[in-house]
Every structure is written in C-alpha cells, then in structure tokens.
Write a structure and sequence with these properties.
By secondary structure, the chain is α/β, with parallel strands linked by helices. The chain contains eleven helices and ten strands. It has helices at about 35-50, 70-75, 80-95, 115-120, 150-155, 160-165, 175-180, 190-205, 205-220, 225-240, 240-255, and strands at about 5-10, 15-20, 55-60, 65, 105, 110, 125-130, 130-135, 170, 185. It is globular, with a radius of gyration of 19 Å.
Length: about 260
C-alpha cells in the first residue's frame, strides 16, 4: 500500500473497494495544501490501478469528515497565492467529480467549507446522523474556493444554495437529505458498511457503462459540452464493448452477467 502523511489508503482486493481516509484527527481533518495534494495523488493511483473498482472517501474519528480548510495556512496567503490555492483545490476536486470509477463520500461528522465542497465533488454522499454541512466562508470574509458556489446550486437549487452560502448556516443531516445534498442518512456505526454495500451494488454493473453514465451526467453541467451529444456518443460506444454483449446475452439467457469492463 502507498504511504501518505495525511491519508490512509486501504484497498480491499476481494471487492475492489478502496477506502481513502483523511487522517488529521487533531485538526478535525482540515484540508491543508499537502492534504489536497495527497488526495490528488491517491486518486490518480486509484485510477491507474486495475484492482481498484470503486472508492469510499471518509474522515478519521467520529467528529469530522473534513471540518474545513486549514485556516492557519489561508491567513498567510496574498491575492495571487489565494488564486493559486483555489485553482489547485478545484483541479483536485474535479478529479473526483470526473473519476470514471464511482466515488462515495461517507460523511462522518462535520463537512464544512472545503469539507462540504469535497463531499459535493464525490458522486454520492452518505451521511451519518451526526453529520453537519455548511459553507461558512462569509463568516471569515471569504467565499468558497473549491467549487462550492458551483456544485451546491446544482445539487439543491439556486435559491436554497444562495441562502446557505449567504447566511453561513450549518444544517443537520436530515435537512441535507431533504434538500438532496445527501443520498442517505444512517447511524454512524453503520456508515461505512452501508457505503460499502451501496458501492458493491454499483460495482456489480458493467464498469464501462458506469463510467460513461458519470461522464454523461457531468456533461449536463459543463458549458463547454453538449449533454445530449455526450449521451449519444456514450450510447454508441457501448455497442462496441464486450460488456454490452455479455449483458444482453446474460439477460436473454436468464443468468447473472459477468462483466469485465471491456
């Protein structure tokens, strides 16, 4: 297993599920520059590793997924460095959003500021009952820098997103579920197992098709792409895949499909 300073990298070879744990418990897993860099490096390793089929991202301890950015680091930045920090974080989080392998955020406590932004960059979000979400940057004289002003409206709508961004309100897990910010809320002791089971259901499907679905949905929110055209392109590509032939044969023969991702 690769070694990181701020992350735990745990691959279950039998299931193909990689668990990435942000491991800065004394800082409530706050996102330092080095932590973001390691997240990017870990995800790239996972994308390049054929053994990794899906990813669960969580935080260490029972208090925080990620409580926010590392404020001590931010106070040392000037305007130019601030732009670079935002662009660095945005690029890293976009890698999660654009990953062809499904990524589930298992949110085990506070997901504030950069933590909320990181969770939103994942494909699905499962929250423990003690989870809390918010973008409180305006309390610090800041705006979100890692995509929060873009992804929050996509997930919960412009009006409610603006309310949360402008008031810096922190919401509980049940409210996040009602708004559509998270997919499920479960008791904390069940969080990881629930996430593994959900990811396992996804991984039982055709890997190529799963990756193409992610890409097509992302295309709907990309101003430089045409979502319907992306879907048509992906649809046609499937017809050349072994998974399509296997899936349709299995359906007609009334047997489980054995997908290979080819």
């Amino acid at each position: 297993m690769p070694a990181f300073t701020n992350l735990l990298y745990d691959l279950d070879a039998a299931s193909g599920i990689l668990t990435l744990t942000i491991n800065r418990p004394t800082k409530l897993n706050a996102l330092s520059h080095d932590t973001i860099r390691e997240l990017r490096e870990a995800l790239q390793l996972a994308l390049d590793d054929a053994q990794v089929r899906g990813i669960i991202l969580t935080g260490s301890g029972e208090k925080a997924f990620v409580a926010g950015a590392d404020i001590a680091e931010l106070t040392a930045l000037d305007e130019i460095e601030g732009r670079r920090a935002a662009e660095f974080g945005q690029e890293a989080f976009c890698l999660f959003e654009e990953s062809s392998k499904p990524v589930i955020a298992a949110v085990n406590g506070f997901a504030l500021g950069g933590g909320c932004e990181l969770a939103m960059a994942c494909h699905l979000r499962i929250a423990s009952e003690n989870a809390r979400f918010g973008q409180p940057e305006v309390n610090l004289g800041l705006v979100p820098g890692y995509g929060g002003t873009q992804r929050l409206p996509q997930l919960i709508g412009k009006g409610k997103a603006l309310e949360l961004l402008l008031t810096a309100d922190i919401i509980k897990a049940d409210e996040a579920l009602r708004l559509g910010l998270v997919n499920h809320v479960v008791p904390l002791p069940e969080l990881l197992e629930f996430s593994r089971q959900l990811l396992g259901r996804i991984l039982s499907k055709a890997p190529l098709a799963v990756g193409l679905v992610i890409d097509c949905v992302n295309a709907a929110y990309d101003k430089e792409r045409h979502g319907y055209q992306a879907e048509a392109n992906a649809f046609s590509r499937c017809f050349e895949s072994e998974d399509f032939r296997e899936g349709t044969s299995a359906f007609l023969e009334k047997r489980p499909a054995a997908f290979t991702g080819k």
